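Hi P.,

Sorry for the delay on this. The queue was packed all week, but I finally got your sequence through. Input first:
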Amino acid sequence: MTITITAFERSPDGGKGLARDTRVRWALEEVGQPYEVRPVSFAAMKQPAHLALHPFGQIPTYEEGDLVLFETGAIVLHIAEHHAGLLPDDAHARARAITWMFAAVNTVEPPILDLVTARILEGDKPWASERLPLVMDRIRGRLQQLSARLGDADWLDGAFSAGDLMMVSVLLRLRPSGLLNEFPSLKAYVARGEARPAYKRAFDAQLSFNTGKPLAG
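Then the structure:
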């Protein structure tokens, strides 16, 4: 069955890998599964046809036969559970990898998204200059904890897993802020994720999708 995901017709970041469909593309590339992409405009995201796939009117969605999923954590977990390459065979290691997936989206990502809100949506508020440092400090606290846990290891728990895929994807959203520069081990960790051939294919595919330029080769 053909896998179809939805993505922004034109991503706000211009295809620089920050839109959440990149995570799903990356997972599919890691496990070697072909997929198709259906573009969705901002207007169409709020229409009944798309809301039937994603009740909150966002992207991406994942369709495979009669199965329809939304939320990147759930989609990547589904991919990882049904195709080899993103979860360890050992039951305990597998459970730990899944734990890191949840940590990425439930513990590390929320303050990072709060930074986006503080800068873009609330930047013109009279209290914005006072709130922004508080948000930055909350992010630093999480990054300090994550950096301490990672230590000098390449990945969070042994070999690369879906946990790393989700964590790197979340940390990439910090690049415009420069905060990752304060944590060399995490900056190197993200760079290792970006260096993976599967990530490069996913990034190039999303960039091509947004710019209309065909992939090289």
